[in-house]
Amino acid sequence: MIDVAVIEALKTLVEPGKVLTDAASLEAYGKDWTRQYTPAPSAIVFPKTTEQVQAIVLWANEHRVALVPSGGRTGLSGAAVAMNGEVVVSFDYMNQILELNVTDRTVRCQPGVVTKQLQNFAEENGLYYPVDFASSGSSQIGGNIGTNAGGIKVIRYGMTRNWVSGLKVVTGKGDILELNKDLIKNATGYDLRQLFIGAEGTLGFVVEATMRLDRAPKNLTCMVLGTPDFDAIMPVLHAFHGKLDLTAFEFFSDKGLARIMARGDVPEPFATKTPFYALLEFEASNDEIANEALATFEHCVEQGWVIDGVMSQSQQQLQNLWKLREYLSETISHWTPYKNDISVTVSKVPAFLNEIDAIVSEHYPDFEVVWYGHIGDGNLHLNILKPEDLPKEEFFAKCATVNKWVFEIVEKYNGSISAEHGVGLVKRDYLEYSRSPVEIDYMKAVKAVFDPNGIMNPGKIFTV
Amino acid sequence: MIDVAVIEALKTLVEPGKVLTDAASLEAYGKDWTRQYTPAPSAIVFPKTTEQVQAIVLWANEHRVALVPSGGRTGLSGAAVAMNGEVVVSFDYMNQILELNVTDRTVRCQPGVVTKQLQNFAEENGLYYPVDFASSGSSQIGGNIGTNAGGIKVIRYGMTRNWVSGLKVVTGKGDILELNKDLIKNATGYDLRQLFIGAEGTLGFVVEATMRLDRAPKNLTCMVLGTPDFDAIMPVLHAFHGKLDLTAFEFFSDKGLARIMARGDVPEPFATKTPFYALLEFEASNDEIANEALATFEHCVEQGWVIDGVMSQSQQQLQNLWKLREYLSETISHWTPYKNDISVTVSKVPAFLNEIDAIVSEHYPDFEVVWYGHIGDGNLHLNILKPEDLPKEEFFAKCATVNKWVFEIVEKYNGSISAEHGVGLVKRDYLEYSRSPVEIDYMKAVKAVFDPNGIMNPGKIFTV
């Protein structure tokens, strides 16, 4: 544990009452949504300014204290977990939207701004922040940048990386860097901004971010299509992708749909039962586009790729169709699922999914596997539900075996062991399935440049 | 100069005849389009495989030989110049398109593939490579990546960075890294791919790149609009940007137009003379969009922002209107222009341009300034034409003074001293106008990670 005098020194760096050491705070701020680690930080500190963050980092270097950045704590990889006496740096009080520039379509934010807050702010100003995912109501922009958050609109809008036009950071050495200055074109050497995006706070902390905004989408329209098997989903994607500018292309299985229907609060999309479902979205900004969508639907039915389908005719219907996909994660959480977030290139998805499916059902025929994900980006969420009669410990022990099989298949298909959740603690020991040992050595050397004393979120992504 | 035995050793690493040391080759391969440096390389080597590139880099480390990467040599910053006895590594024989994946919309290329070759290949396959600029007929993909090339479609499609889904590189230490493996979503630590984009070959050499492709654009349509002054261009941009998904928004001045008209091979857009012109482009994929464009044009005329204008009605007219902008660089090259490529955020453009204009005309009232550029990205090309009676040396000496003023104004407006041409040799000594000394120190430390012996394109971007 950290010496009392050292914590007292920390208290002088921030406003009164902005260092907490009570048990409830240590418990609450020491964990994220992974829930599998026992939180044990030494203190939580709440800076309000860039200068306070810088002072905290300099203090941590002086006393060799490990720092863990903390946003909305909705992460699924343990990157915001503090279980080794670290000091948690929470950005809860750096939560202001600082400046909107309508001409540049940018908004300058503090890192503690909640994703939904930014989305709403953009909407109120006739613009659009397109990165969206299940935890947008709690996650913070700083955390989104740290994990390069993706979500449901990546096929059209890309990852968080695409929307960061400038970053102010405090590096692990305590330097303040203003990266890219919000420029669209800037060819003046290495784009260090890119290094901080997805670095999970291991190089430094984001203290300000200028995010790009887009025009508001026009008449978003959704289709849910039932397919006879998984393989049919790919030609459906190909057919629609060629005709429309899709804003989303998701999928889920009949098992997923059954769990949603069992809730009782979401209307059934259509009566026909099919093994898989594609959910796609586009801007029906004029009649020609809507007609093109219907013609493509008919083509897919003629080809036997689609058995039944529905297209939203109102905002209410649009929202109801999206619930089929968006409620999945929360709905199946009651079955204590083993979850995995993996990706391959889009064209490899069918073979990849079938191979994982086969190996799980061969070894554990009684496990229920619920697949869903962002098929348009090659990003699959594998969920294995715990059989009711199987004790939790035994289930997770069996899933640890699954982990290894899954990652071996990921490696075989040149895929990613973490598509959008990050590495953190959960996937740290599996990193070599996606990145070569030489590449990991370069990553460690880059970390040493920005954080020579290894105080920034140590033990996350890799151990040094 | 390099010892003869060392060059003999180099010859054993590649195919026979693939090391050149004759005067004409040294002259040709030692320079780029900057033309202001005297080429003086020791040899030119032409690898054909990744393994040969790796062998060359290991050889260079062993003998401490500086390497300069060489693509189409169309650069405007001197990044591909060899004037200190370096060995030039030309990618002219690594020019194959290796694999197209229609589902993933990606194409795997060697670095020596010419930009136009990639554009044509995409088009033949019903797809589109959107990065385009004046030198696309000669520039190579490896060079595009090294400078993060931009060009005329950035407002819609972004820079080259957006289109690189995977890179294979040989680092300055001679390691082969496969970066990102063409994935759309991959949250497994630092995205080292991003570091190599825009690094001007100072960290390592790209030996293979997987580039993303887009769907082909539909019925591209162009408008040229005459405005009463420069300030009117901004509300015109704002009006059209709000209504249409623009694929380009360029501008040029009456002086630029006059030079184009003097060629005699480009039709006049319309009879009315105006001080400035905006050129914008969009997909008129249906009548509603074309009508929206015309309505916005009428609104701009009513507001007094636009005096006259024209909209293309055919592919021929589209091409003719684009010539007004695309022929500019080549046309004014006959007046030995001092050129500068600078950027600010879009909203600052009018004040920024006026300030530079004022300082140049105050000190050099007899200099003709031709402005043009990518206004939708905040990227301006400043061109000062040499008065006919002024000796070249005297003109460039005066322009050196202009340089400093321009960069001081760039710094004041938080802009970039190089928007899309890179730093190379030309802007190396001005880098601090855009990047802080601390940031430059971090860049140097990052370089040392990938190139500890400083053999990769030394002296470019910064001196170590």
From TrEMBL, chains A, B:
<dbReference type="GO" id="GO:0071949">
    <property type="term" value="F:FAD binding"/>
</dbReference>
<dbReference type="InterPro" id="IPR051264">
    <property type="entry name" value="FAD-oxidored/transferase_4"/>
</dbReference>
<keyword id="KW-0285">Flavoprotein</keyword>
<dbReference type="GO" id="GO:0051990">
    <property type="term" value="F:(R)-2-hydroxyglutarate dehydrogenase activity"/>
</dbReference>
<comment type="subunit">
    <text>Homodimer.</text>
</comment>
<dbReference type="GO" id="GO:0022904">
    <property type="term" value="P:respiratory electron transport chain"/>
</dbReference>
<dbReference type="InterPro" id="IPR006094">
    <property type="entry name" value="Oxid_FAD_bind_N"/>
</dbReference>
<dbReference type="InterPro" id="IPR016169">
    <property type="entry name" value="FAD-bd_PCMH_sub2"/>
</dbReference>
<dbReference type="InterPro" id="IPR016167">
    <property type="entry name" value="FAD-bd_PCMH_sub1"/>
</dbReference>
<keyword id="KW-0274">FAD</keyword>
<dbReference type="InterPro" id="IPR004113">
    <property type="entry name" value="FAD-bd_oxidored_4_C"/>
</dbReference>
<dbReference type="InterPro" id="IPR016164">
    <property type="entry name" value="FAD-linked_Oxase-like_C"/>
</dbReference>
<dbReference type="Pfam" id="PF02913">
    <property type="entry name" value="FAD-oxidase_C"/>
</dbReference>
<dbReference type="InterPro" id="IPR016166">
    <property type="entry name" value="FAD-bd_PCMH"/>
</dbReference>
<comment type="similarity">
    <text>Belongs to the FAD-binding oxidoreductase/transferase type 4 family.</text>
</comment>
<keyword id="KW-0479">Metal-binding</keyword>
<keyword id="KW-0862">Zinc</keyword>
<dbReference type="InterPro" id="IPR016171">
    <property type="entry name" value="Vanillyl_alc_oxidase_C-sub2"/>
</dbReference>
<feature type="domain" description="FAD-binding PCMH-type">
    <location>
        <begin position="37"/>
        <end position="216"/>
    </location>
</feature>
<protein>
    <recommendedName>
        <fullName>D-2-hydroxyglutarate dehydrogenase</fullName>
        <ecNumber>1.1.99.39</ecNumber>
    </recommendedName>
</protein>
<dbReference type="Pfam" id="PF01565">
    <property type="entry name" value="FAD_binding_4"/>
</dbReference>
<dbReference type="GO" id="GO:0046872">
    <property type="term" value="F:metal ion binding"/>
</dbReference>
<dbReference type="InterPro" id="IPR036318">
    <property type="entry name" value="FAD-bd_PCMH-like_sf"/>
</dbReference>
<keyword id="KW-0560">Oxidoreductase</keyword>
